[in-house]
Amino acid sequence: MTLATTATQVPVRVDDDKCIAHKGCTVCVDVCPLDVLAIDIVKGKAYMAFDECWYCLPCEQDCPTGAITVDIPYLLR
Amino acid sequence: MTTLNMEFDLVVIGGGTGGPMAAVKAKEANPRLRVLLIDKANVKRSGAISMGMDGLNNAVIPGHATPEQYVKEITVANDGIVDQEAVMAYAANSFAMIEELDRWGVKFEKDETGDYSVRKVHHLGAYVLPMPEGHHMKRILYRQLKRARVEITNRVVVTRVLTGPDGQVAAVMGFDCRTAELVVIRTKAAVISTGAAGRLGLPSSGYLMGTYENPTNCGDGHAMAFHAGAALANLECFQINPLIKDYNGPACAYVTGPLGGYTANAHGQRFIECDYWSGQMMQEFYNELQSGNGPVFLKLDHLAEETIQEIETILHSNERPSRGRFHEGRGTDYRQKMVEMHISEIGFCSGHSASGIHINARGETSVPGLYAAGDCASVPHNYMLGAFVYGKICGEQAAAFCAETGQAAHDGETEAREAARILAPLQRGDGLTPFQIEYKTRRLVNDYLQPPKVTRKFEIGLQRLAEVREDLGAMSAANPHELMRAMEAHSILDCAEMAARASLFRTESRWGLYHACVDHPERDDANWFCHVLLRRGDSGGMVLEKRAVEPYIVPVDEQERTAYQRLRIAPGTTPAPQAA
């Protein structure tokens, strides 16, 4: 049996110019209750790896450079 | 796959609200006690109050309320089915906890004289204390954890409490959600503080994590208590919340009510006398939604500009701060538009209703060495402050228990079986995804288990849930993160089955909408003035029994007993809608 993926627009946006994950910062990844954020090792930037957001905002509020914006997921908007 | 083995005296499972308090109080009781606080998220931002809380909903403050009054209020709000001693243990310790939190730096609203500004939201008494700056709750708790030298393990999902030869706590088992490494922690005692079972029903948006409760709170604790042999109480008393339509947060009448806001129908008219969340209030809310007078709204558009600004400051920075941007997206300005509301999907949450792991006034479950606090435990209407008070009780009781108890040995075969259960989805190359299993379970919950409850629908629901249980054996996980979702799907399915079996057992209607049975529409005190306890039978299935309500320590007279049955404003007496 093969598995297919369904593409979806995720709620957490990361401004790569502001994100300092390449300097070792993992604050957003650390604080996310759902553990849906990750660091792209190649780019050195944070991104949303799983579409399981509670739009609770610790990632946005605790980010030291203001790189993160959380949108309300489209299904709810 | 390697296994990480650890040993502690006390393991606290869940680092949200009650858990940190339990860990701190256990260490304060005995600084030499080896205490581990474990969380599947990060304790800094985990649980129901990850973004703080805007107020205390059940503060029992001298001069404003007495513990006896509070016990009476909660007894009446729960149609009499309460262990008053357990409610009193909360009420009698409520004010001391407020004072302690105050010393820790929590900022409560006070008047010019320095007295707490208590507001009235409940039907009978005044118990609401605003915390306009309550967004700092988790930071304050974290500081106390560090001060008390509590050890913390983040990102470990606990799946089972293993027991010893006499059924007592012996170990806690789980896995790391980033590496899938197995974790086995030998321990004398454990406190379960895993919050509500909030991923039971499916939000109508279809967004799996769009739940009222923090979605990490998916009933893991309820399931592990069940499998450890502990009793769970009154699971048929579902939790259903009045929320902003589509957005999974309250609108919120507790904050706005004392400032002049109220729940209204489409005509802008009040239809309930009291916005305090009870089953009876939810029934009236549901009735209004179903009638031609719906939808239901929170009305604020009659308030003065400075009041609205105060409301925006509180509601858009606390608890669920993204509600501000939700309103913005919909073009909802409190000044011009009422906020459309709806009722939430079902869950278990004693914080607002009454169901959960059965505990007594000492926080003890029916398993020796196992305690439970907060939204997952059975003390009704406990809210955040109740989680703190019972966290304290559990921490202190567990510390005393550890002093007198040796470490029990668990059965190696049970550990091996659990290890195999945890790792199975990772070892399957393909199969059903955790998403598919969870979505189907929760969709069945909505289709068959949502009140009004119909016997035939529950029977079909149980059949369909049994089919999903078969399918668990075909679930696969591509990585440790998906494995977390897979194990959560097991817990969710267990909770769904418990919800169904408990509901079928109680053949009467009680608690308003929470247990509104179409086939048994009347309350039947002669046969059902009792708790319902659910536990694991010898063959592993679910066994239900009645348990007598403990003798009241605070008498309730007949007039008071029915106060919550009279919430609806009689037609013709509705106050005229005020101009916008």
TrEMBL record, chain A:
Keywords for this entry? 4Fe-4S, Iron, Iron-sulfur, Metal-binding
> SUPFAM superfamilies this protein is in?
4Fe-4S ferredoxins
The record's listing under Pfam families reads: Fer4_7
Concerning PROSITE patterns, the annotation shows: 4FE4S_FER_1 (PS00198), 4FE4S_FER_2 (PS51379)
Q: Which residues form the 4Fe-4S ferredoxin-type domain?
A: 10-42, 44-73
Can you say what this protein is called?
Ferredoxin family protein
Taxonomy-wise, where does this protein's organism fall, top ranks first?
A: Bacteria, Pseudomonadati, Pseudomonadota, Betaproteobacteria, Burkholderiales
